[in-house]
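ok trying this again, last paste got cut off
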Amino acid sequence: MAKYHVETEYAIVGTWDQPNITLTVLEKYLPRYFNHARKLYNLHKQSFPRLHRHAVDADVKALVMRNLTHEYDFYNFCKRHLYKQYLALQLESNLR
């Protein structure tokens, strides 16, 4: 049901593991609200708090992935959906 709603009710669903791709798609699909978003992000990104990533054992990762299979599947679906939109923009700019 969540995948259906992403496809039918949301213009864009981005991820922050690839901020430049997300911001590029937002700029192109919704320029009224996100014009120059990448420029502003890059200008201010050093002021964003840094997340400290700690090493996680492989067995713990496997346990989490087993228990959150639907969530991982949905997240990967959203990433693929975003990448398709990004690739469509790249193809469109190559045709010009």
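PB: full thing came through this time. The longest helix spans residues 69-95.
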